[in-house]
Design brief:
- This protein is of the alpha/beta class.
- The chain has one domain: P-loop containing nucleotide triphosphate hydrolases (Rossmann fold), CATH 3.40.50.
- Strands 3-2-4-1-5-6-7 form a seven-stranded parallel beta sheet, sandwiched between helices.
- The longest helix has 19 residues.
- It is globular and about 50 Å long.
- The relative contact order is 0.16.
Amino acid sequence: MTAVHFIGGEKGGVGKSLVARILAQYFIDRQVPFIGFDSDRSHGSFLRFYAGYAAPVSIDSVEGFDRIIEAAVEIPARRVIVDLAAQSYRMLAQWIDETGLLDDNELDVTLRYWHVMDAGRDSTDLLARLLADFGGRLPLVLVLNELRGSDFSTLETSGALARAEELGAPIITLTRLLDSTMHKIDAHDTSFWAASARESKSGAIGPLELQRVKRWLYRAYEEIDTVSP
């Protein structure tokens, strides 16, 4: 059975592309075959860092989502990562409803939605909307992105978190990496693999920063392991 991982969160700037990049690196390091799709036409950072594994896709219409599933069905053993652009939830929800993939799936494809959250109220409200629309029909992973804030008290006291836990949604935390190190990785077009393998551009990232990246990735992988993607 093929797993299609939609990396969303609806808001811009919560770290969707970052999570897509980490999941891609996770599959690479574990030698798990996958293909990626980048739907962000304005930035496309997933495609920028993992061009050998990802392709652009337009999700302005249902045909773009159909293309993703066709790629999943083509090679059943291959995972699929979809980096969703901001403000794409409405189209995704419409497509899921029209196809009925959550109710009568004859294609042997599973869908999973990674809801990437910052510490703001909007992310919690969007989670509540997601749960209201799908309940437990759409498997969820909640990703608390500490690179976008560490005070998740609004989420913790919300009914949305309690409801997600009740439905069995895994909750993983992406810990902080020094802003300066992340900026260097991005500024020099360095993939996480290149950084952790000490193959970044000469002088781009120092040896201690490289060590931090490896430890940070290790912690992220430990979190992802609990999800069994």
